[in-house]
From TrEMBL, chain A:
Molecular-function GO term, any one: protein-N(PI)-phosphohistidine-sugar phosphotransferase activity
Record protein name field: Phosphotransferase system galactitol-specific transporter subunit IIB
Lineage: Bacteria, Bacillati, Bacillota, Bacilli, Bacillales
Record keywords: Transferase
Source organism, top-level taxon: Bacteria
UniProtKB/TrEMBL annotation, chain B:
Protein's name in the database: Ascorbate-specific PTS system EIIA component
Keyword field: Cytoplasm, Kinase, Phosphoprotein, Phosphotransferase system, Transferase, Transport
SUPFAM superfamilies reported in the protein's UniProt record: Phoshotransferase/anion transport protein
Domain of life assignment: Bacteria
PROSITE patterns in the cross-refs: PTS_EIIA_TYPE_2
A Gene Ontology BP annotation from the UniProt entry: phosphoenolpyruvate-dependent sugar phosphotransferase system
Gene Ontology MF: a single term: kinase activity
Upper classification of the organism: Bacteria, Bacillati, Bacillota, Bacilli, Bacillales
Domain PTS EIIA type-2: 4-145
């Protein structure tokens, strides 16, 4: 399982978000890796799931990629819920 | 670490801003004044939001405007603006806390961001930041984090 956290620049928000996604993955026992990058690079990087803010996910969603939008990327509850719905039950 | 960068000089309190563009400009002033960034950096941050949407609103109330190192960053820095009345972004997102991040490369700011991430994971601390009235209150929130 590879999760890619994406933000506009790939150096600030996606890094912080990936810390929380990793925490959530651990708590939910999801095996895999989670890295972070910027929108432009993410378009050429393969991942099982892409996570980010709704604006960024809208631009990445081409109907083929599996995208997960987060409103509050610091809410561990919201991340866990999103991972559960999309990955564990998906 | 956060405390080391968010000195009193870098923190401002204002009643309101005309719009989010002005909020980003106001919030960046201490960084510009101290030559940590060039004016180009402010323009790029605003341009980024226009192009990519308000992704800098990391969670309700809290925005972290930033651009890339090559867009005019001289030195690692943070500045903070707390607006009594927040501003609205396109699409309905709202923020009254603006933390401007100036990162000179891809690594030097990561410790700061991990610390910030701990602060933002606590809804209580986010609320306290958003309603802070003076530097002392900010200092206390950051102080707790350093423990």
């Amino acid at each position: 399982m590879k999760i890619l956290v994406v933000c506009g620049n790939g150096l600030g928000s996606s890094f912080m978000m990936s810390l929380n996604v990793q925490k959530a993955m651990k708590e939910l026992n999801i095996e895999g890796s989670c890295s972070h990058t910027d929108l432009a690079s993410s378009k050429s990087e393969q991942a099982d799931y892409y996570i980010g803010s709704p604006e960024i996910m809208d631009q990445l969603n081409d109907g083929k990629r599996k995208v997960i939008s987060l409103i509050n990327m610091f809410s561990l509850d919201e991340i866990k819920k999103a991972l559960t719905t999309h990955i564990l039950e998906g | 670490m956060l405390k080391k960068y968010l000195t009193e000089e870098m923190v401002q309190f204002k009643e309101e801003a005309k719009n989010w563009e002005e909020a980003i400009q106001l919030a960046s002033e201490p960084l510009l004044k101290n030559h940590l960034i060039e004016k180009e950096y402010i323009d790029t941050m605003i341009e980024n939001v226009k192009n990519l949407g308000p992704y800098i609103v990391l969670l309700p109330k809290f925005a972290m405007p930033h651009a890339r190192p090559e867009n005019g960053v001289n030195q690692l820095g943070l500045s903070l603006l707390i607006l009594e009345n927040g501003v609205q972004f396109d699409g309905g997102k709202f923020a009254n806390v603006f933390l401007v991040l100036a990162a000179p490369d891809k690594e030097s700011h990561l410790t700061l961001l991990s610390e910030l991430s701990t602060v933002l994971s606590s809804q209580e601390k986010v609320d306290a930041l958003a309603s802070a009235k003076n530097y002392q209150e900010i200092f206390v929130i950051l102080e707790e984090e350093a423990k």
